Amino acid sequence: MIGPLISLRYIFGAWAKKFVTFTGNSFNSQRLGRLKFSNKKLEAFDIDDLLRASAKLLGNENLGITYKATLENGISVVVKRLNYMNELCMKDFLQQMQLLGKMRHQNLVEIVSFYCSQEQKLVIYEHIPHGTLFELLHEGRGIGRINLDWSTRVAIIKDIAKGLNFFHHSLSSQKVPHGNLKSSNVLISYDDNHGYHSKLTDYGFLPLLQTKKVAAKLAISKSPEFVQGKKLTHKTDVYCFGIIVLEIITRKVPGQILGEIEEITSDLSDWVRTVVNNA
Predict the structure, then answer these.
(1) Where in this chain does the record put each Protein kinase domain (predicted)?
(2) 3-state DSSP: the chain helix, strand, coil percent, rounded to 5?
(3) Is 172 exposed, middle or buried (0-12, 13-18, 19+ CB in 10 A)?
(4) 62 pLDDT exceeds 80?
(5) What count of other Cβ atoms lies within 10 Å of the Cβ of residue 140?
(6) 106: which of 25, 194, 251, 264 is 20 to 30 A away, CA to CA?
């Protein structure tokens, strides 16, 4: 759910106040240095420009809090304030973000820029306007539920597969290139001429997580390899993709199946297997 309009300066609290001060109606800013931009074609803005932006809360998930920020020039971006990375080596973060920032594909959300200090690590993405696949599938149940015909569902699945395939080929040396593939990390845009278009986001953070306890906050933690303590590979991402496919087909929420009639498991893949075996 999108929260009320506030400023990023207010959201970031004490950290922002160390760098941003107001004197009367004039704005004086101690420059923090420029953000690291992935797309040189975009108009550059500094971290203090970002702090002046109006913002709405988009989500608060395990790896961090996400906001939609509207800059004074009217451009909207999405800012993810990362958790669990303050102890991370700055060099490692910079290298991974520079690598991810080079990724360009019609089914990947583009990383516009990022900011790195010992206190804060921010990733700034392009803004995709129509919410997440999770919201499309599961919100508005009943009369308000959006009908998705099979051709639309197949098109969404194909978009996700194309994005994941590109990512796996581009980052073939990384054991689990996405690492956090789930329906809430698939963003949706829509227009009347082309219908729904899907893009993957929140990718590439696994190499930056220093403990298995923190990695357990990612979607891959539900995979058999992770649960059994086995070696993680590209197939771990493929398992997560399979769960999304089942979610799109059944429109059931993974992990929330218990309590329905004759359901004996909260695992979506187990539920589907049980239904097929009993058919």
Answers:
(1) 52-279
(2) 35, 20, 40
(3) exposed
(4) yes
(5) 11
(6) 251
